[in-house]
Amino acid sequence: MSSSKIVLVTGATAGIGRMSALHLARQGHHVIATGRKLEELTKLAAEAAAEHLRVDTLPLDVTSDDSIRAAVAAVDKLTANHGLDVLVNNAGFGVLGPTSDITDAEMRRQYETNVFGLMAVTRAFLPRMRDRRAGRIVNVSSVGGRMTLPFFGVYNSTKYAVESLSDALRYELRAFGVDVVLIEPGVIRTNFESTAVSNLEQFKGSVYGPSMLKVDDLSKKLDRFASEPIVIARAIAKAVRVRRPAARYVAPRSTYFILVLQAVLPTSMWDWSMRKMGFLTPHALQVDTRAPSQLPAAAPGS
Ligand SMILES: NC(=O)c1ccc[n+]([C@@H]2O[C@H](COP(=O)([O-])OP(=O)(O)OC[C@H]3O[C@@H](n4cnc5c(N)ncnc54)[C@H](OP(=O)(O)O)[C@@H]3O)[C@@H](O)[C@H]2O)c1
Q: Taking 70 as the threshold, does the pLDDT of residue 2 lie above it?
């Protein structure tokens, strides 16, 4: 592959995807920035044009087969049937909710984008890479693809799926000259947080309601420790640039600490800290842990 590559980024209308599209273009790559919000794509194209960057924009909803088909045809046209050198599967989101109470519809929505959408886009752009015996797929996962946080069970499970699918693709595509790389962001300042808490109202009346409100409050406070999207854009650019990429890039590097902590702590201690963090102790949940048969009998007439 030459040093300037044709790179398509999904979910480039905001956050990590938008920053990565611009950063990659500033590094000299031909970027195809895609997303659902056309007005955001227009703004991105204008910003890139002002800097004389090579950025094309295309509509792409990763959950729509028609949209994916149209994007593949448009990329073939833009690249004279060369196809992509690199696909950056970035589009994704997470919604907080008690894992036992979250609806099937909400679970499916997250899986449709984060897992099935990522796989559908990958399958669609892979044939030209495999035929050329060259290409790279960069999947934006999460440290939450290696550890589970309270109330993030569904989102985290989608990223565990992305990790496993990426591992398998890495084994299966190597012989065809296609590398598969995982990017594992920690906490990054984007719209991710506001999307994550967008459904909290729904659980207000549940036994987890008060704890979820406290978690929401905690995550807002933690926002000041969040890193800027450029940190992930740089990790993605490295995954695009280097000749032999690593299987995984954790960014920011400080995030390794939590992964190491999880690895060294006994599960009982890790679970205890997660219960504390999620306000999931009987005290925080105001739960009487005694079985009804152990409760003192109510006084007659009370
Ligand atoms: N921010 C973090 O702390 C963090 C941490 C770990 C991993 N990540 C991962 O990083 C990736 C980017 O997230 P972000 O932090 O940049 O959040 P963000 O600011 O909310 O951006 C998410 C992007 O994904 C797009 N998207 C969502 N559903 C889509 C679909 N069906 N088709 C096409 N695009 C779609 C959004 O477009 P719309 O505006 O149209 O919805 C938006 O452009 C995600 O995969 C996320 O899981 C983020």
A: no
State the CB neighbour count (10 A cutoff) for residue 196.
20
Amino acid at 61: D
Rounded CA gap, 31 and 209, in Å?
43
**Ligand 1 pocket, 145 CB below 6 A?**
no
Residues 6+ apart with CB under 8 A from 250: 143, 184, 186, 256, 259
What's the pTM? 0.96
Q: Tell me the catalytic residues.
A: 155
Q: Any residues with CB less than 8 A from the CB of 231 and at least 6 apart, and which?
A: 185, 188, 251, 252
SS3 83: coil
The H or E element that residue 125 is part of is helix 118-132
Measure the CA–CA gap between 262 and 120, rounded to whole angstroms: 32
251 lines ligand 1 (CB under 6 A): no
Q: Is the pLDDT of residue 139 over 80?
A: yes
Q: What are phi and psi of 184, to 5 degrees?
A: -120, 90
The whole-number pLDDT of residue 154 equals 98
On the CB side of 126, CA atoms within 13 Å amount to: 20
Class of domain 6-256 as given by CATH: alpha beta
Going by CA atoms, what residue is nearest to atom 29 of ligand 1? 91
Specify the residue with its C-alpha closest to ligand 1, atom 25.
Answer: 11
Q: Where are the alpha helices (DSSP H) in 133-191?
A: 153-173
Length of the chain: 302
CA distance 2 to 21: 18
As beta bridge partners, residue 182 has 139, 248
Q: Ligand 1 pocket test: which of 10, 20, 93 has the largest number of ligand atoms within 8 Å of its C-beta?
A: 93
